[in-house]
Amino acid sequence: MRVKQMDIKSGMSALEIIEEMAGAGVFIAGRLARAVHVLSEMISSEDVTVFFGAAGALVPAGLGRIIAEMIYDGFIDVIVTTGANITHDLIEAFGETHVKGIKGEDEKLRENGINRIFDSYLSDNAFVVLEKRIQEILTDIPVERRKEGIPVYELLKEIGLRLNYKHSFVKAAAEADVPIFCPAITDSILGLQMWLFSQRNALKLDVLEDLHKIISIAYESKKAGAFILGGGVPKNHILQAMLLTGRGFDYAVQITLDRPELGGLSGATLSEAKSWGKIAKNAVTVDVIADVTITLPIIFSALKETLERK
Amino acid sequence: MRVKQMDIKSGMSALEIIEEMAGAGVFIAGRLARAVHVLSEMISSEDVTVFFGAAGALVPAGLGRIIAEMIYDGFIDVIVTTGANITHDLIEAFGETHVKGIKGEDEKLRENGINRIFDSYLSDNAFVVLEKRIQEILTDIPVERRKEGIPVYELLKEIGLRLNYKHSFVKAAAEADVPIFCPAITDSILGLQMWLFSQRNALKLDVLEDLHKIISIAYESKKAGAFILGGGVPKNHILQAMLLTGRGFDYAVQITLDRPELGGLSGATLSEAKSWGKIAKNAVTVDVIADVTITLPIIFSALKETLERK
Amino acid sequence: MRVKQMDIKSGMSALEIIEEMAGAGVFIAGRLARAVHVLSEMISSEDVTVFFGAAGALVPAGLGRIIAEMIYDGFIDVIVTTGANITHDLIEAFGETHVKGIKGEDEKLRENGINRIFDSYLSDNAFVVLEKRIQEILTDIPVERRKEGIPVYELLKEIGLRLNYKHSFVKAAAEADVPIFCPAITDSILGLQMWLFSQRNALKLDVLEDLHKIISIAYESKKAGAFILGGGVPKNHILQAMLLTGRGFDYAVQITLDRPELGGLSGATLSEAKSWGKIAKNAVTVDVIADVTITLPIIFSALKETLERK
Amino acid sequence: MRVKQMDIKSGMSALEIIEEMAGAGVFIAGRLARAVHVLSEMISSEDVTVFFGAAGALVPAGLGRIIAEMIYDGFIDVIVTTGANITHDLIEAFGETHVKGIKGEDEKLRENGINRIFDSYLSDNAFVVLEKRIQEILTDIPVERRKEGIPVYELLKEIGLRLNYKHSFVKAAAEADVPIFCPAITDSILGLQMWLFSQRNALKLDVLEDLHKIISIAYESKKAGAFILGGGVPKNHILQAMLLTGRGFDYAVQITLDRPELGGLSGATLSEAKSWGKIAKNAVTVDVIADVTITLPIIFSALKETLERK
Q1: Predicted TM-score of the model (pTM)
Q2: Checking phi first, is residue D248 left (phi over 0); if not, alpha (psi -120 to 50) or beta?
Q3: CA distance D248 to chain C (A)
C-alpha cells in the first residue's frame, strides 16, 4: 500500500491531521494515527474496561485537566498513577498553581523556596497549603475507615469527594467512581503526609486490598484495554493486573520515549508483554515513541472528534 | 506566570491546540508552541532570509509534500538537505512510490528486491527507473555547464526544472529559485548516479562554488533565520554559513531527539552555537526535543493559520 | 585545563581506563570517571550512609551478583528497588535461571511458556518454583509477625534469611542487615504471591512503617550519599527520604539514559533535586548518561581497585 | 543457554570484564562483548578490508589518539569521517588544545572568544593558528596537484604528510596510506579554509574521484568489514560503498544511541542495511546502543589484548 504524502492545510482539526498521518502510515506519525484509531475502538466499545496509566509529571505540564476530561467523558474506567501526579493534582485543587518563566540556579531556587520540575515551578507555600488541607481531610475521614487498614484507592476516593475543583482528576475520578490505584503511594509527598498523619492519628494502608481490587476488576472485565503514558509502576501495574486472569489485554497503546534495548520494563515493547500473557496473542497494540505533552492533547482532541462521528 | 491547564476540545485546529500548549508553556509542548511563534515571526518578516535544513527520511515518511508546500508558500529561501532526501524525492517525482505494510526479515526482503527504511519500503525497480531518468536528465544538461565544474545547487536546479511532479520539493525549489545545497551529494544514490554518468560523460562538481554561494547568501541577508529538522550535515552547514559574516542567526528553531550530553553536533543545543557566533547573542532560539513526523504537520498547519491571521 | 587525549593500552584495568577518561574529563567518559571518584569518596568515608537505588532488570541482565558483592563489600547501607528486581533475584536463589539465545515471536514464546525480558528469557516453570518456595517461606514466618502488619523491609529480611544462594542480593542484604525498601512491592509477581498468600493466611503489609524506617535512617545519618541506577520509584524514594531531615544528600551519582526535557522525575538532573532540598546545595553530584549494564561492571571493578589503594 | 551473573573483580582488565559481559550475554553489555568478538575476528583476518566510520566529536572528547593508535596497529584500512573530526585533529596537531572546566553562559563565552563543544572548549586563537598553518600547507602542495581538481582523500593525505604530531589520526593515516574520505568536507571549518584559499589560489576538489576511489576499494576487497561510530554521513557512506559491488559487508559493528523508529539512517539497525544489500545476508552484525566515549576505550583495550592472545 502506498505511503501517501501528507496533504496538510491551514485550519485542519487534530483529527484531520491524524487522518493525513494515517494516509502516510509509517514512522511515528503512522503510529500516532493508529493509536487514535485503536483508542477510539476500545473506548467506544461497551465491553471494554479501559485501564489508564500515567507516569511523569502531568499536572506540572498542564495536562491534568485533560485527564479529568477523559474521566468526565467516560473514556477510562481505571486509573493507575504515581503519588507525584496525585500530589500535584491536589495542590492545584487546593488553589495553588504551578508557574513558569522563573530562571536561576537550583541552589538559588532552594534559597527562595522554589521547587523545580524541569521548567515548571512550585513554591514551598504550595506544600504548606497541601499539608494543612490534606491533614484536615484525613482527619475528616471517619476513624473506623482508616484504623483497620484502608486500601489506597478508597482513601483517594475519600479525598477526591472532598475536593471542589472540577479540573482535578482525583475529584473527577471520585465522582465518576473510577478507582485510582497508586501502588507506590508512600513514594510521594502525599505519602509523606499520610505518614505524618499516622504518627498522631489512626491510619493504616491495606495495599494488598488494592491489589485484590484491581485483580477483581480485571477478572470481571469482558474485554480489557490499556492506555499507558510513560513507564514505571503505572505501566507494569496495569499489565500485571491481567496476569492472573489467564487472558491478556485485548487492546494496548503506550506512549513513551524509553527504549527497549536497555532491558527495563518502561521501554519494553507491548509485544514483549504478549510473551508473558499480559497482552493477548491477537491483541492490537501500538507503541508510540513520543513525548506525552505534545501527543496527548492531539490524541484527546482527535479522539473526541472521532467518537462524535460514530 | 501560571502554567494553565490545557483546555482541549473536539474539532480544534492545530493552531488552537498550539495556543493551549502555549498557555501551559512548559516541557516539550511549551517549546513546540514557542517554535510556531518564532517561525511565524521569522517567516512573516520581509527582512529575514530563512534557511531550512532537513536530515532524516522525509519523503519515505510522507513529509515531502509539506516541504514542497513550504516552498510554494514562500516560507523558506534556502534549503540544505541530504542526498537521500533528494533521491527519494526524485523517485516519487518519477512516478515510483514508497509502500507500507510489508513484513518479513531483511534477508527475505533483499531476495525479493525490496529496500527498507524502517517501515517504509521501496522496490529495486524504483532505482532502475531513477537510473534511467536521471541519466537522461544529466545528458540533457548542456555539456558546457557540466564539464568545467558545476556547483551542486545549480545541478539540482537543472534537475528540478526537468521534473513534472508538483509535490516534489526539488521541482518546487527549482521553480521558486530556492537553492538546494547538498554538501554530501556523493553520499547518496543520486551521487552514485552522478559518478556513473561521469564515467562516460563530462561531469565535474564544483563544491567550493556551492560553499561560495551559501556564504554569499548569508552575507547578503539582512537578517537570518534557521529552521532545522534533525542534525547531521544540514544542521551544521546552515549554522556555519553565518560564521564568516561576523554576525549570527537572528532566529533559530530545531527539532531533534538527539541529546547534547553525547557531545555530537546533531544533539547540541542551539545555545551552544551562540558560543561559536553562529547564532547571535540575542537571537531567539527554540530546541524542540521531538520527532519530526508528528511535529512538522502540526507546525505547518498552525503556521499557515497564524500567517493567514496576520 | 587541557583535555588529554586518552592513552589506552592492552591489559589495562578498569581503573586505569577510568583514569585515562578522567584525564580527558569531558563528555560521558569524563562523567563516568567522576562517578567513580565520587563513589569511592562516599563509600570510603565512615560518616556517610550510602543509599543504593536500582530500577531496571538487573538480575536478568546478569548484574545481580554485583549487587550482592557490593553488599558483602560494605559499599551500601540501604537499598531501594523494584519488586521485579527482587522477584528475579529470588528466582535465581531458588535455582532457576534466566536464559539467552532463544528466538521467535512473542506469541510463540507464550505458547511455549517462555517469558521475555528483551533478550533474556524465563520459563513459566521458574514462576511455579517461585510460588512453591515463596509460599513455604511466607508460611514459615511466625504468624504474629505478619498478622498485625509487617513492614516490607522486615518481610524481605525474613525471606532473605531463608535463602541459600550467596549471589542473591536479597540474602546478602538480610545477612548484612542492609534494609531493602520496595515501596511498590504489590507491583510485582512477588507482590501477587503475597496477595495470594493473604487470601488464605494472615498477612498484612505496613507500608507506612517502611516509610518511617527509611526516614529514620535518613535522620540518623551523619552524612548521606545516593547511588542510583535508573529512575522510577527507587530514584524518587531515595531522594525524598532526606526531604524531612532539613538537609539533603551530600553526594549523589545517577546512571540513566532518560532525559530531563520530558519533565519526568526519572530523567531529571540531580541538580533539579537541589531546588527541592533533597540534595544539599554544595553536594557533589554526577549525572552519567549511560546504560547500566556496561557501566556498572566497569564502575564496580574500578571502585574496588580504588578502595584497595586507599 | 544460561545468563551467567557477571563475576567482577578488582584489577580486571577490559578484556576480562568483556568476557564476563559475554558470559551474561544479554542487553547492551552482551552486545558490547559481541562487538569485541566480531571486531577481533574482522581485524585479525588478512582477507578483510576494514572500513572505519566516525561521526561525532572524537578529538574534543579525547578519543583522537585512539583513532591514531588503531591506524598504527593496522586495525583499519579506510576511514570515513566528518570535516569536524579532521578540523579538531589538525588543531591539536598544530599545538592547540581543547580545554575543560570553563563555566559561563554561551553569550559570555562568545564575548571571551571561546567556542563550546558540550563541555570541551576551544579558543578563537586555535582557529587563527589553524588558518595560518593550513593556508601554508595548502600553498605548499604543488599547484599542478590542485588546479585540475584533487580528490579530497588525496588532499587530506598531502596535509597529513606535513604534520608533526604523532597522535594526529590525519598524520597516522597519511603515513600508513590509509585513505580518509570526507564526503562533506565543505561542511566544516577546514572546508571554509579551503574555500578561502581557493579565492586567491588554484584549488578545485574532485569529489566524484573520491567516490571512485572508495568504490574501487570496495570492489577490490576480498571481504569487507565496517566499524561505525555514530551515524550521519560516515555511516551511510561506508554502507553505500558496497552497494555497487553486488555483495555486501561481511562484518559490521555500529555504536550509536540514535533509535530506529524515527526512520533516519543514523539510527537504522544494521539489519535494515541487509534489505538494501549493503550488508551481506549472512553477515555478522552487532548494534551497540551506547555512547562512544565510554565504549571505544574499553573496546580498544580489549581488542588489543584479544589480538595479542591470538
Answers
A1: 0.98
A2: beta
A3: 25
